[in-house]
């Protein structure tokens, strides 16, 4: 079964450093998403991306965050200057369409620890 | 987003059916009801979704009340691998995000 893959599985970074989390969505999917989950808390939506632009973002997704689809297969989340509170599991997801009746498939996550 | 209410936790025995309830009294006519689950240290996993009619797939069944103000996820024979947090989520036709709540922590006893 096709799956969303994410790298790295775990990254430790120093506060203030830039981090790029990478994702390979399911082939032929058109909608891409990033979610995050701080340890012990709910899964939170960050951003959705379609047709090479952001279609929706949450209040969490401020100027420190950016997303990019640099080629036909990868989808990245960049955190420009990490803060301690950015420590979380980051999930990439994709769906074939953006309609409410479509399934969103999640990756296994990238665990980011900011020290 | 319309809100859902789920019990914080439920327990089941292995190989018995499990009925996970969800209340969504403010659901709108075009909201889809989605169920996801999250096993420990893993990403959310799609389980099932529906709009008005009951739905079945290889993982589970979804029973939707006639007035759509509640639904029940049915696992026909629970296994230890089904121990997870189960989320009932309403998704608007005009929105693209999934809004996760606290979900129901399902414990399966051997």
Structure description:
The complex is a heterodimer of chains A (115) and B (110). With 115 residues, chain A is mainly β. In chain A, 0% of the residues lie in helices and 50% in strands. Chain A is built from no helices and eleven strands. Chain A has strands spanning 5-7, 10-13, 19-24, 31-37, 43-50, 53-57, 65-68, 75-79, 88-95, 105-106, 110-114. In chain A, the strands form two sheets. In chain A, strands 2, 4, 5, 6, 9, 10 and 11 form a seven-stranded mixed beta sheet that branches. In chain A, strands 1-3-8-7 form a four-stranded antiparallel beta sheet, with no helix packed on it. In chain A, strand 5 and strand 6 (53-57) form a beta hairpin. Chain A starts with a strand and ends with a strand. In chain B, 0% of the residues lie in helices and 45% in strands. Chain B has 110 residues and is mostly beta strands. Chain B is built from no helices and nine strands. In chain B, the strands form two sheets. In chain B, strands 1-9-8-3-4 form a five-stranded mixed beta sheet, with no helix packed on it. Classes of the chains: A mainly beta (115), B mainly beta (110).
Keywords, please?
heterodimer, A: 115 residues, 7-stranded mixed beta sheet, 4-stranded antiparallel beta sheet, 0% helix, 50% strand, B: 110 residues, 5-stranded mixed beta sheet
